[in-house]
Structure formats: C-alpha cells, structure tokens
Amino acid sequence: MLTGLCYICGKAGILHTCRICGKNVCGEHFDFSTGLCMNCKARL
Hints:
Blueprint: E1 2-5, E2 12-17, E3 24-25, E4 30-31, E5 36-37, H1 38-43
Antiparallel strand pairs: 1-2, 2-3, 4-5
C-alpha cells in the first residue's frame, strides 16, 4: 500500500495497485478479492 491520489476519483489516502493496469486506486475503487481496480474488473 502507498499514499497519494486515486486514479479514478482523485481521493487522497491509502492506495492499492491494480495487478493488471498498475494504476493506484483507493479502497472504494479496488476489488480486494481479485486485486483489480474497478475499471479493469469491469472489462473482464
């Protein structure tokens, strides 16, 4: 985990890195079960 701004919503805080695209997103836009951001999860 790291801190910064979410790629999707711009919210500051703790971020998680998507295992497909490598973008950093907040917990609201990260699927913990798959390790994907919501953008990548929606494409599957």
